[in-house]
Amino acid sequence: MCLDVDDTLVDSAGSSRHSLRALVGNDRAWSVWQRTTDRYYARFVTNELDFDTMRVERTRAFFAAFGEHLDAAEAERREARRMAAMQRAWRLFDDTLPCLDWLRGSGLRLAVITNAPGAYQRRKIAAVGLADTFDELVISEEVGAAKPDPRIFRTACDALGLHPAEVVHVGDRLDIDAQGAARVGMHGVWLDRTGTADRPTDVPTITSLFELPGLLMSDLPAVPAERRGASGRPLAQLSC
Ligand SMILES: [Mg+2]
Predict the structure, then answer these.
(1) Ligand 1 mean position to 139 CA, how many Å?
(2) Fewer CB within 10 A of the terminal residue: the chain, N end or C end?
(3) Are 200 and 185 in contact (CB under 8 A)?
């Protein structure tokens, strides 16, 4: 069983929004911050920028959008303040621990698959109390490939010692998580916490991690034969 971290287990958007309030006194520019983050985080994920450079450049771009042009030193100071506020606000969603407890109690081996810097993400996982929860932490910076690159999903399956058709991956991004996992023959599940989007036809959708046990015990569709390979088995036959 694989899970994404940010906005799947950890309310990263919530902590980021809190940090923006700490930085500028309100969150009226939240959508600008989100767009700027999407743009710059993508450059980190593709190795165009290292994580610390990305953070500073993102902060400069954000303030530049409002006509304030920061030098690198000032951007670093503001980003350090924002990061400290964000880390104090890291929280699990209410459904995270009950779901993880159920998965553990079912005897499933657990891994995370996350696009992030290794040390930073390990610190976050420990800060929210999950340091001893997972059998494997599969982190893009350490793997050298980021979701939806098939290599990171295959790395996770290999680390668990399982064929992709025996592994479920749940995440909040339809394209990067659920469909990316499905493309390598895993059972991709989309966690749409908004519950408002049109449901895709190619992967199952849940709106809360409370729904995951029911999905696992009921009717996850079998992985199509062309994705399965010779040893693929439907989920209902999974051994733990
Ligand atoms: Mg996520």
Answers:
(1) 12
(2) C
(3) no
What is the signed CA dihedral for 163, 169, 174, 175, rounded to 10 degrees?
-40
Q: What angle do CA 147, 194, 157 make, to 5 degrees?
A: 25
For residue 67, report the distance from its CA to the centre of ligand 1, in Å.
Answer: 31
Q: 171 CA to middle of ligand 1, Å?
A: 6
- Ligand 1 center from residue 166 Cα (angstroms): 22
CATH number at residue 210: 3.40.50.1000
- Tell me: do 104 and 65 sit in the same domain: no
Tens of each residue's pLDDT in the chain, 240 residues: 999 999 999 999 999 999 999 999 999 999 999 999 999 999 998 989 999 999 999 999 999 999 999 999 999 999 999 999 999 999 999 999 999 999 999 999 999 999 999 999 999 999 999 999 999 999 999 999 999 999 999 999 999 999 999 999 999 999 999 999 999 999 999 999 999 888 999 999 999 999 999 999 986 665 555 554 434 444 443 433
Same domain, yes or no: 6 and 26:
no
Q: Quote the ligand 1 centre to 170 CA distance (angstroms).
A: 9
Distance 184 CA to ligand 1 centre (A): 19
Q: 194 CA distance to ligand 1 centroid (A)?
A: 13
Model pLDDT for residues 145-174, shown as the tens digit of each residue: 999 999 999 999 999 999 999 999 999 999
Distance 8 CA to ligand 1 centre (A): 6
97 and 176 share one domain: yes
Residues 112, 157 within the same domain: yes
Ligand 1 center to 161 CA (angstroms): 24
Contact of 184 with 164, CB cutoff 8 Å: yes
Range of the domain at 80: 12-88
